[in-house]
Request: fold
Amino acid sequence: MHWIVIAPAILFAAPATALTCTLNFTIEITQGVGTIRPGTHLPGFAEFTTDGRSFRQEGGSTSHLATGTMTIGDGTGGGIGTGGGEIGGPIWTLITTSRSNAADLVGVYAHHIEGLSYGGLDYEGPMALTLYGAPGSRPEAVPPTTQAEWDGLDLRRAFMLHAPGADMLAGDVLGLTVECS
Reply:
């Protein structure tokens, strides 16, 4: 008698290729904090590299783990809430959705934010740049790689930085330019 042993198939997704992107943008503040009033324009910068690991999340979104930094402000140091400077922190993930009934999105998320403290609250994160496109505008839930793909996310472009509780600094994202390799 001959036995045939069939091993169960285990499928692993091959890691995606790492993607490095640099984003330059301007935020027009809509919800201010302290001396940062609505209508103020603040320059922003983000640079990240995905590490090839992605996983599905609730609601049909996909998380793409990444490393990098995101900052807003004038680059003079000292913290925005002190009359100049910048705030920022490390990027840890990109969240994407595609082909849903709701707007497609790409979100760039940073945490452990430093540089803004006002009224006894440290605005320490998360800090998010979230771009929304028409439902189905993203063919796949992967990060965009070209300026045209980033430009297609044009329904709404939002920035927010949270403090503990309900307080946040928020605004609209203007003038986004992106280079990816």
About this structure: The beta strands are 20-31, 41-56, 62-73, 86-96, 104-110, 117-118, 121-122, 127-133, 156-162, 168-180. Residues 84 and 167 are 20 Å apart (CA to CA).
